[in-house]
Amino acid sequence: MNTDKYSAVWVSHSSISDFLKCPRAYYLKNVYRNPATGNKIKLMSPPLALGQAVHEVVESLSVLPVKERFKESLLLKYNLAWQKISGKQGGFGEAGVEMDYKKRGEEMLKRLMDEPGPLKNLAVKIKQELPYFWLSPKDNIILCGRIDWLEFLPDADSVHIIDFKTGRHDENLESLQLPIYYLLAKNCQQYSVSKASYWYLERPNGLTEKPLPAYDTALDKVLTIAKKIKLARQLGVFKCPHKDGCSACKPYEMILEREAEFVGTDRHNYDVYILEKAPVVIESVIL
After folding, report:
1. Could you tell me where the DSSP H helices lie in 84-192?
2. Do residues 108 and 249 share a domain?
3. CB 3.0 to 4.6 Å from 90: which of 49, 59, 95, 165, for a disulfide?
4. Average pLDDT for consecutive 10-residue bins of the chain (287 residues)?
5. Beta sheet of 132-136, edge-to-edge order
6. 223 and 132 inside one domain
7. DSSP element (H, E) containing 220
8. Residue 173's domain spans which residues?
9. 2 in a domain, yes or no?
């Protein structure tokens, strides 16, 4: 049995979602490397930039004691985070568009300051920088991912999984996000899991609890897809299910065809590109 994490196939909610949408998109986002730099590639868009900035601010609270979380204005932190994705770095072609997106984020954070809800309660922070566990040692597959927030529930000695949403649409009913976070929370920290919720930050009272999946069902479902990903990597076969490409892979194909503009390399060593006219607007983000 091989349990070498360096030779293992790593999967996450984002990579699994990519594969389910289009294996070709999965390849371009998770396997392909720019031959000129050796880096993976990333396509930045305004919705993604908005989510990145807001999540950075919220994530910074999870490492602070409860009494310290709101001593500094979240808007000040947000302005600093926004500097990293301002202009072309965030896929913004026009100043007016950027201001509209920035204002949306400000309104989300104002709502959190006015109604912090679970953010004013104790939280659990997983010590691993990137939480992961062996989804299947036999198959040499690891599941990884960062959970936005784990609220600690002292009366039940358990945690509440919370995922923040900066998009305007509800998460798909078939989404594997909460099942994957449930698996990670069960395997990467010591407390039981009693609740899971999405928090739609653009909505008043946007905290929406979802039923927890059965552990074995979630494990089997995620492992089945992970095995397909592993097989595709072994065979080197990543075909788009559509003859002429799809909305998931076409934007990345445009990078390869030099129809996208390179705007820099981010802190994770991804080569970041933008499109002047993106074929699709993604109104949600996973971080």
Report:
1. 95-114, 177-188
2. yes
3. 49
4. 86 98 98 98 97 96 94 97 95 93 98 96 95 97 97 97 95 93 98 97 93 97 98 98 96 97 94 76 44
5. 9-11, 141-144, 132-136
6. yes
7. helix 215-235
8. 123-136+145-235
9. no
